[in-house]
Specification:
The chain has about 350 residues and is α/β, with parallel strands linked by helices. α1 packs across α11.
């Protein structure tokens, strides 16, 4: 499956230029955008983390960084109390085995490009990137604000394609990330890769009388990977992998199961904001593979749901006529959600975060 740059047609015109500085943090080359554009009086600074698509590098995310910062700074100029508002910086870094971190090019390829370990490679790469994000959140302030003159008051993440998969992991596993914008990503690795195995006509999919019945747990999706998916993947954590059926997405969990799920979701998602953007014509990461879990989650967090007390915001938008790409309308929606998220954080919360 070819993976062109999903951002190739996102911007009709180049966004405004902005400052950028590079830092090597924990051995990872990071680019920090927008530092010089912060108002001198700004003390609380939000950080938006950008995670790149498969077969791309952090460089392709620069226009997104510029758009986010320029829109937010323009918005601040209209506020009489702008000195009390959060500033915004954006940080990008290469996903594992991409760009400056590439070790084995084949590991970034799919089954039909000759990578027999596609399922293991892709999951471990984007899961690793989510862990890197947590590591960088910890150490970034000591590099960019060494005199503690400013504070990182909130963290947001935006990921595209492979970066979208990683963004789901970030929002589920990193408590300091309170907002995630997922673009053409998927929260259900099992469904995504089962569909890809079917389309790739893997022997482990086609060899059985009931096609696909032996795929999970096979050499193409080993038991070790199944266990990792159950531990870290959003749908895997909530619904399992081997034991679930299509009915699992439709049925409300039993009262006994809710005793486990409510603390799980409370720990992972309470009070968080998630935007999921998908293309209706995306054949590489089809919305159909994410939709059952998203529907399950929407029911759980609805005003009548069994996790309504979690106060989770989930905005899910499918764009007609859009394939595996970040369309201009997707960018506009993402910018709007970022700004709403920045404005939704109360001043007291920002002050408390700055002291942690």
């Amino acid at each position: 499956m070819a993976t062109p740059n999903p951002l190739e047609s996102t911007h009709s015109q180049p966004p405004p230029p902005l400052s950028k500085k590079t830092h090597v943090i924990a051995g990872i080359l990071c680019t920090v955008y927008g530092y010089d554009e912060l108002l001198p009086e700004t003390k609380n600074v939000a950080c938006l983390w950008l995670l790149n698509p498969r077969l791309q590098t952090q460089a392709c995310m620069e226009p997104v960084a510029s758009s986010a910062i320029s829109h937010w700074n323009q918005r601040l100029q209209q506020k009489p109390n702008r000195h009390d508002c959060q500033g915004l910086i954006v940080v990008s870094f290469d996903q594992r085995n991409h760009g400056s971190r590439e070790i084995e090019p084949l590991a970034n390829q799919a089954w039909n490009a000759g990578n027999e370990k596609h399922a293991q490679d892709m999951f471990s790469i984007f899961h690793g990137t989510s862990l890197d994000t947590s590591q960088l959140i910890t150490y970034l302030p000591s590099y960019i604000f060494p005199s503690s003159e400013r504070h990182i008051s909130s963290n947001l993440v935006l990921g595209i394609s492979l970066g979208g998969h990683a963004a789901w992991h970030c929002v589920f596993h990193e408590p300091r990330i309170t907002t995630a914008i997922v673009i053409i990503g998927c929260p259900d690795y099992t469904r995504l890769m089962s569909d890809r195995a079917k389309l790739s006509k893997l022997q482990t999919w086609t060899a059985t009388t009931l096609p696909g019945s032996s795929f999970l747990g096979s050499v193409d999706f080993p038991v070790g990977l199944v266990k990792a998916v159950e531990k870290y993947d959003p749908a895997g954590m909530c619904l399992g992998v081997m034991s679930r059926s299509e009915e699992s997405f439709e049925q409300a969990p039993s009262a006994e199961r809710q005793k486990d799920l409510v603390p799980l979701l409370k720990n992972c998602l309470e009070g968080k904001r998630i935007m999921n953007l998908a293309g209706a014509d995306d054949n590489l990461v089809p919305y159909a593979q994410a939709e059952p879990y998203l529907r399950w989650l929407k029911r759980a967090i609805s005003p009548q749901g069994w996790f309504k007390e979690g106060h989770v915001t989930l905005e899910d938008i499918v764009f007609d006529g859009v394939g595996h790409e970040m369309s201009p309308d997707m960018l506009s929606a993402a910018i709007r959600f970022i700004e709403e998220s920045l404005e939704s954080i109360p001043a007291k919360t920002r002050e408390a975060a700055s002291k942690i």
